[in-house]
Amino acid sequence: MRAVRGNSTGRRNTLIMEVLDWATGEADAAGTVGDVLDSALMESQIGLYKTELIKPRKPWHGLADVEPATAEWVDWFNNQRLHSAMGDIPPHEHESHHHAQHHPQSVAGGDA
């Protein structure tokens, strides 16, 4: 499994490259210590990402296919998905409710 591929700046998003390798059949069976799959939380998130995005849309033909699809999935995951632990509302709505409860707006011109 390749940890990082170079580009014009010598850097690439490791997670995207790991998933691209997996999606195109170039990934090794196991990672090495210190790579992105070393963290159990990250491994769980990558599994969800593969199940919800990568597997259903195979075959992927390259990074040009994976990058925009990943950006769309991340936007959906962070802003639109309904989360049962938050009352089946999207994360941004939950954050707005939380902020409103914990940081109420003061009434302009009112006495405190």
**How many strands in all?**
0
Characterize the biggest β-sheet: none
Q: Total helix count?
A: 4
How many domains? The number is 1
Helix percent reads 40-55%
Task: Report the β-strand fraction as a percent range.
Answer: under 5%
Distance between the termini: 61 Å
Task: Categorize the overall geometry.
Answer: elongated
Rg, nearest Å: 19 Å
Structural class: mainly alpha
**Which segments are poorly predicted (pLDDT under 50) over 5 or more consecutive residues?**
1-12
Explain what the structure shows:
The protein is mainly alpha-helical and 112 residues long. The chain has one domain (14-102). It is 48% helix and 0% strand. The protein has helices at 14-23, 40-54, 63-79, 91-102. The longest helix is centred in the middle third of the chain and has 17 residues, at 63-79. It is elongated. Mean pLDDT is 74; it is low at 1-12.
List its traits.
single chain, 112 residues, mainly alpha, 48% helix, elongated, disordered N terminus, Integrase_cat-core, Integrase catalytic domain-containing protein, RNaseH-like_sf
